[in-house]
Specification:
By secondary structure, the protein is of the alpha/beta class. The chain is built from 6 helices and 8 strands. It has a 6-stranded mixed sheet, sandwiched between helices. It has a two-stranded antiparallel ribbon with strand order 2-3.
Length: 216
C-alpha cells in the first residue's frame, strides 16, 4: 500500500486548533458552560465557591473566565472522543487520532481511518445550536483537500470525509437539513465525497449507553 504521509500531530498544532475552535464556538453565541452541571458522560461535576476574602473581584472574574473556558474545552474534547469512538465502533481498519500530513504539520486531522486503499477522514465540530458560519466548516474541508492532493492516485479513489457536527441542543429536522445543504454547497468543489452528520449530545449519550455505532 502507498504511504499515507501522516505523522502524529504536534502538541502546539493540536492546541492551536483547539483554541481556534473554542473561539469559533464563543463567537457563534454559545452560552457560557456552567461550572456546575453534567459532562457528556452524565457525571455530575461541581466547583466549590470562591471566598471573597481569598479572591478579589478582579481575580474572581479571571478565575471564572478560566473555569468557563476550561469547561468548554473539556466538553469539546469529550464530544470529539465520543463521536470518533462511536463512528468507528465495530468497523474494520486502523484508526489514527490527531495526525498531520508530513508536508504540513500545521494541519491537524481529528481522525483518519484506513482499510486497504480506503481512507476516511473524520472531522468533528462542536456547537450549541449549529450556528457556526459555514466558512468554518469549509476551512476544515480545505485543509483536508491539501492532504488529499498530496496522495497517490491509487489512494484518492477511495477517499471520503465524514464531517460530524455535535450540538448541545436537539435541532429541528428542517434546521439540520439547511445546515447540510449549506455545507454541501460550500464544499461542492471538493474532489471527494463529504458526508455531513449531525448528532445532539443526547444522541451520543444514548449510543454510549446501548453501544450503538453512529452509522454503518
Amino acid at each position: 500500500m502507498k504511504s499515507l504521509g501522516l505523522v502524529d500531530a504536534m502538541t502546539e498544532a493540536t492546541f492551536s486548533k483547539l483554541r481556534f475552535e473554542l473561539n469559533d464556538i464563543k463567537a457563534a453565541g454559545t452560552p457560557p458552560v456552567s461550572a456546575e452541571g453534567e459532562d457528556l458522560a452524565g457525571q455530575a461535576t461541581s466547583m466549590p465557591p470562591q471566598s471573597p476574602a481569598v479572591v478579589g473581584s478582579d481575580q474572581g472574574g479571571a478565575i471564572d473566565g478560566f473555569t468557563q473556558g476550561a469547561a468548554r474545552a473539556s466538553r469539546l474534547l469529550l464530544a470529539e472522543e465520543l463521536a470518533v469512538n462511536l463512528l468507528t465502533l465495530g468497523q474494520r481498519g486502523t484508526v489514527r487520532r490527531r495526525v498531520s500530513p508530513r508536508f504540513n504539520r500545521n494541519i491537524v486531522l481529528d481522525a483518519v481511518v484506513t482499510n486497504g486503499d480506503l481512507i476516511r477522514v473524520i472531522e468533528v465540530k462542536y456547537t450549541t445550536n449549529g450556528k457556526l458560519p459555514v466558512d468554518k466548516y469549509k476551512s476544515s474541508i480545505d485543509d483536508i483537500v491539501l492532504y488529499y492532493e498530496g496522495l497517490d492516485d491509487q489512494l484518492k479513489s477511495g477517499f471520503a470525509v465524514d464531517l460530524i457536527i455535535i450540538t448541545e441542543e436537539i435541532l429541528p429536522i428542517q434546521v439540520q437539513v439547511k445546515i447540510k445543504v449549506d455545507i454541501d454547497l460550500a464544499n461542492s468543489a471538493a474532489p471527494f465525497p463529504v458526508r455531513v452528520h449531525i448528532y445532539a449530545v443526547e444522541d451520543l449519550k444514548r449510543m454510549v449507553e446501548f453501544g450503538e455505532p453512529a452509522f454503518a
